[in-house]
Amino acid sequence: MTGTTINQTEVHTPTDRTRWRLRVDEGRQTWHYLSEEEHKANPQTDIEKYWLGLKLDAPELAKPKTAQEAARNGYEFFKRLQNEEGFWSGEYGGPMFLLPGLVITYYITGEKMPNGWAQEIIQYLFNRAHKDDGGWGLHIEGHSTVFGTALNYITLRLLGVDAEHPVCVRARGTLHKLGGATGSPSWGKFWMAALGVYDWEGMNPVPPELWLLPHILPIHPGRYWCHTRNVYIPMSYLYGRRATFPLNDLTRKLREEIYTQPYGSIAWYQQRNNICKADEYYPHTRLLNFLNGGLVIAEKVTSRSMIRKAALRAAYAQVKYEDENTHYLDIGPVNKTMNMLSTYYEEGKESEAFKKHLKNNIDFMWMSSEGMMMNGTNGSQLWDTALLTQGVVESGLAHEKQNHESMKRILTFLDVQQIRKNPPFMKEAWAFSNKHQGYTVSDCTSEGLKAVLLLQGKLSYTEDLISVKRMEEAVDIVLAMQNSNGGFASYESVRGPAWLEYINPAEVFGNIMIEYCYPECSTACVLGLSYFRDQRPNYRRDEIE
């Protein structure tokens, strides 16, 4: 992903980019840094060279004279980036608050990162430091914030960058100008508290007791949007047990570096609602501040009670459900690292669950010419491939003989990636990334279905790999996701009332408490159902229409 904040630096030495290889396995895409011997035995492909910014071996194509010729040239090049499983691997970057959670979790658990990761994460953060002030924002195009600058500064220090390195000096200066780390939003306060460089008293409560409430109540977290819910599950578990890394020499130094006053002189209670204006996108409502004040009082009682023990068990049970249902990939990298840390404290680093978390972190890591980032999911494989397929078929390029093999490989990928097993509400759906992660999105199933209908219904040379029964079950899923107002939301039907936004505690995101119906999801679902109706007019026709 290209941005305007690139600040190339020669101060840090990255790895040898020619030794990186991208491996695929049933939709998984993982980068590996090879030894010199492995590197010589496994030449890089154009796919790897493209993403690493290295020179390709692509031939010069004839200059197009028409739009169709330009499209043909474009796909001729794009086929060089299609992998052996039929999909297109790619970056899904942008957020600048993902790497800190990963690095802090590795540091707390004492695990060593795979070869090449630390150097390239440092390189990425160096390159992504804001060109004007040296800080980092919420995302690659954003202005510097306390959230981005404090956490990424801490990340560099945990990876071994000296406090007096020019990048750290500049970032620290910006952090201090913004008022220091006390002005971080709640997610930043959480990660710093877990590391032991911020006091839990300076964070608004995240009570795990909410999981003990009756589900019928509108404030039950089961009614939240699934991304929000899955972040606050492990956060409530870790907050509830005050899981804190023991102080060491480095974290003592960090306590001195990230604040504008001595650590011991900070009135932590007063920092709960201290959010830097550069960070604050969604200010607290009076209702939220009132409820937080009550929770602070309640916390003095519940934190030492049997209720807290029951609440921690309930919260961790939800962590386990999420891990097991997604093969330890989780809905995204934020709760992935929090779940991993929760597993470490609950089951220990020798547990099978922790080892599975550790093994699957690689699915989120992406190498680029700028260094190593953490993708916003474990990829966008299905989504990208399904949309590309529609463009190639509808442009007529799929009918050209030189593209037949490419189309067949896409169909094989779509066949393999349709989710064939439950947990409930997943079977015969398509996910955003791959079947292993398992979360369907309404538009992903719809776009996957459209791609299959085009490949099997419009092309004479493809096999019917995906049966009518499987397509019917995909239609069942899409129809079941329609809301009472006729629209389609993303992952689930709308479960909670809109007024839950009044207690949105995130500060940096709006409209995240519940699901919402979206024009994009609704359009994708309507078109997917329409394509299906045109080819299979007798299945649930009245409901589709």
From TrEMBL:
Presence of keyword Isomerase: yes
Entries under Pfam families matching the protein: SQHop_cyclase_N
Keyword Repeat carried by entry: yes
GO biological-process terms attached to the record: ergosterol biosynthetic process; triterpenoid biosynthetic process
Coiled coil: none
Keywords recorded for this protein, A-Z: Isomerase, Repeat
Gene3D superfamilies (alphabetical): 1.50.10.20, 6.20.120.20
Record-annotated Squalene cyclase N-terminal domain positions: 77-326
Signal peptide range: none
One cellular component (GO) term of this entry: lipid droplet
GO molecular function: lanosterol synthase activity
Similarity-based family: Belongs to the terpene cyclase/mutase family.
Name of the protein this chain belongs to: Lanosterol synthase (Oxidosqualene--lanosterol cyclase)
Organism field: Linnemannia schmuckeri
